[in-house]
Amino acid sequence: MPQPTDIRGEHLSAALSLATSGVPVLPLRAGKVPFGNCRRCAHNACGGRPNMKTPGPCTCPHPCHGWAAGTTDPGVINSPTWARAWRDASAVAYHPGGAGVTVVDLDNETAVAWARETLPGTRTVPTTRGEHWIYQGVMRSVNAVRDGVDIKSTMAYARWLGPGTGTVTALPDIVRALAVKEPPTVRPAPQAVTVPALTGGGECRHRTPVYLERGIAMAEQRITDARSAVHATVYRTFLAVLSAHGRCGCLTDAHTARLFTAAQAKGESPRHCTDAWTNARTTLGL
Q1: d(CA 199, CA 202)
Q2: Which residue from 100, 116, 263, 265 lies 20 to 30 Å from 67 (Cα-Cα)?
Q3: Burial class (CB in 10 A: 0-12, 13-18, 19+), 142
């Protein structure tokens, strides 16, 4: 029997439509946060999902356990218990990992500009303050991988803001690498260093030398502006530069020397610069 319109609501209708396409959904209350656990599940007393690694409700009928409440079962989504949550819901959320995707959450204009310069194009969804970039593939979720950038995939939820525009592309190594945390190192004073540049290999994909110059300048600035996690910032910056320019032979000793100089000015050792460069090349298969 069809549910009354006031019970279904637009959030419930959207959730049912998403679930039909295989996207695990859950309601969000005010503040864009999941509904709290019921009394039976308070403080995870029920044990929750096994290891909390897969979406889906526990045996209680409520939308409990945050992201793990995500489900594609229309019977659960449209149940009387969930209907009460939908009446109070402020938005629909989904579990990206359960849908086989990763969301790069860009929370401000600076983060969006960085993504447009650095990341491969994919489907984008406008948000209140920035954009969601959706890639096909899953990875672990990490917050604050850089200023204004969160990764949402496994064991996380993202707000549903519409289908977006563009074609979803494969999750690139450069996004996976954002979750990599390099171990700290002792940082001696800056020293002169010989920088290993890449020689020609593939066809150049860049329209003008200005594109490369702008990319190197932005990379230098990113390193210079780092106020914390400098070690990881240097590695991720090297990875981004190599991802964009490492296969076409555009990089010269002068370009990479600029990056190493910027890193040493932040206290990185010559050895770490070389190691980070080598590790980034290895990650990208260069």
Answers
A1: 10
A2: 116
A3: middle
